[in-house]
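Propose amino acids for all 317 sites.
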């Protein structure tokens, strides 16, 4: 006869005995894989010194967002800074490069670009959407990039000395609703050239205050200042490569570079598509994959004569 052997009876453990025990450990200091923001930006700026790369990256981002025109403006004026949202930000009202385009940020864009600017949270391209690390080329000329889009202005402050407060646990990215700024801090939206009192924008405007001598040094992002003449030379280079690049962008049809001072304004360079319908039709067959960098597009044009020939009949000026 076969019989099942019973196990000897054992008492059931109480609930305290079932609870997981915390491991014994000696408290240590936090040492996770967080990246020093200023050091990382300094490295990026060093790898991409002030040059035409900033124009190409901004053009690429605007094109990916569906912009049909982009305007670069070297603003030489010193704007009034009496009514500002933070008394520490006076240095942001001097000469600057402004970049305006006819597209606005999506909710995802706003979330992703804040991720790029957050302390210790510089992510890879896959997590920052159409911006990727390309946005950080702006730090080759500025320490405090800002932009106005939709109903807000956002300002990046990696040093926590212009708009952000590190001791209060803030990230170095601050945004203000336009409605609030017009009530308390109206000189800030005026520095972007926004229409008085506007609270919803159909465009996006970057304001990149040029790095001053006081903002340079071994602990800063850049070791040399960026002069208006430096930026003027960058904008003039648009006339050398702009035509080729605009033809191979997905939506941009008009790009302009200009300068403005207290006496008036003038055009430095301009690339405009004349036969819009022909160019749009040709783009369908030869465009690169979405997200292709501007530098890659120009390299392709230089190395592939056959692709360039397909543009016979397509014109820019």
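Proposal:
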């Amino acid at each position: 006869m076969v019989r099942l052997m019973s196990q000897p009876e054992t008492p059931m453990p109480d609930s305290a005995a079932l609870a997981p025990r915390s491991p014994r450990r000696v408290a240590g200091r936090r040492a996770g894989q967080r990246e020093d923001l200023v050091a990382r930006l300094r490295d990026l700026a060093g790898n991409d010194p002030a040059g035409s790369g900033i124009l190409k990256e901004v053009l690429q981002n605007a094109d990916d967002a569906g912009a049909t025109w982009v305007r670069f403006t070297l603003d030489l004026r010193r704007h009034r800074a009496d009514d500002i949202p933070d008394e520490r930000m006076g240095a942001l009202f001097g000469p600057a490069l402004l970049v305006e385009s006819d597209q606005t940020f999506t909710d995802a864009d706003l979330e992703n670009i804040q991720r790029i600017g957050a302390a210790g949270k510089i992510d890879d391209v896959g997590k920052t959407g159409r911006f990727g690390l390309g946005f950080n080329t702006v730090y080759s000329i500025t320490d405090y990039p800002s932009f106005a889009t939709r109903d807000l202005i956002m300002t990046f402050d990696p040093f926590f000395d212009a708009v952000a407060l590190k001791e209060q646990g803030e990230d170095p990215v601050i945004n203000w609703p336009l409605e609030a700024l017009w009530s308390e801090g109206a000189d800030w939206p005026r520095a972007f050239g926004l229409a008085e009192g506007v609270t919803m924008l159909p465009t996006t405007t970057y304001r990149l205050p040029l790095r001053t001598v006081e903002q340079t040094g071994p602990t800063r992002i850049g070791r040399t200042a960026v002069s208006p003449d430096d930026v003027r030379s960058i904008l003039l280079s648009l006339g050398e490569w702009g035509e080729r690049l605009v033809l191979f962008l997905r939506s941009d049809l008009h790009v302009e570079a200009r300068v403005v001072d207290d006496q008036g304004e003038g055009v430095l360079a301009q690339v405009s598509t004349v036969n819009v319908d022909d160019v749009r039709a040709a783009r369908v067959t030869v465009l690169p994959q979405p997200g292709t960098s501007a530098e890659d597009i120009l390299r392709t044009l230089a190395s592939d004569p056959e692709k360039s020939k397909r543009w016979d009949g397509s014109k820019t000026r």
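The CA atoms of residues 153 and 175 lie 5 Å apart. The chain has eleven helices and eight strands.
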